[in-house]
């Protein structure tokens, strides 16, 4: 779940425009835009702001209504998402299985009708959010259409879609369309850097995800996970198993350039430690770095850094990725005097 108390920076203008222009409000809005920019989060925070009892332009995050939204216990708010996205919004999946459903189910849509017939707890607005709307099958879509054709009083629908063209035209026609802004490269970069990632690393992730900032954050977090896994392996006193490393999911999910970039960060920290400075990238692993560099001349570390730089030039076109990565790991650990199994 993303921040519960504010809109993403690139959606602030969208939010203020919506919340300050509530005259002639439609009963249903369809928020659309590029995938991976936080549209679901926008609708969730918007519902929170609309139901807030202390503020009309943003959630106060202090009133009982805001707390109810945070706990998913608000009697006037219904969030409808597929099981696979339930945890992102603090919800429990309808059907807990090993493989969670990606569909908005017809029973969820029919549940909207039951919800809409209830009296409002605060004698005011009820808000229903559906995300992503295109994940409904035809039966569910027709059930929603029936509700939108005869909308309940004092009920606002916030529909969110990545692919408006696949929705039933009759659903689209019954909603007021609202395009959500895609963050500029600089906005996305500033946001990712504020989460503690390097500028170069963040920019690479944004470009890799075609400007979609939320998937870029996921990519960077997964990258952090494999580095931590790798460093934890280095901290053990046992011999290193290269095949074990290659089979690890956090490593398998990374491309070769990302792995080489991470290995160079680790090598930079080792060089800094050897020269009596603090690690730049992984300061929490300083004791491990000290243990490693105590047995090495600094020239060996510079040689390792040079080797990794050379491999980056070859990384875009390896004949065999698994073998290429195996050679890199083997050279890395041999130069650092690790025992291999």
Q: Can you give the mean pLDDT?
A: 89
CATH topology of the largest domain: Rossmann fold
What is the fourth-level CATH superfamily of the largest domain?
Answer: P-loop containing nucleotide triphosphate hydrolases
Residue share in helices?
40-55%
**Strand element count:** 5
Number of helices: 15
Strand content is: 5-15%
| CATH architecture classification of the largest domain | 3-Layer(aba) Sandwich
What structural keywords apply?
single chain; alpha/beta; 341 residues; five-stranded parallel beta sheet
Task: Map the helices and strands.
Layout: H1 12-20, E1 28-32, H2 39-51, H3 64-70, E2 77-80, H4 106-116, E3 126-130, H5 138-149, E4 155-161, H6 169-173, E5 176-179, H7 185-194, H8 199-208, H9 213-235, H10 242-246, H11 249-252, H12 256-274, H13 286-293, H14 298-314, H15 321-335
Parallel strand pairs: 1-4, 1-5, 2-3, 3-4
Task: Please describe what this structure looks like.
The protein is α/β, with parallel strands linked by helices and 341 residues long. It has 2 domains: 9-182, P-loop containing nucleotide triphosphate hydrolases (Rossmann fold); 213-335, no CATH class. Helices cover 49% and strands 7% of the residues. Strands 2-3-4-1-5 form a 5-stranded parallel sheet, with helices on both faces. Helix 4 links the parallel strand 2 (77-80) and strand 3 (126-130). Helix 4 runs parallel beside helix 5 (138-149) and helix 12 packs antiparallel against helix 14. 33% of the residues are buried.
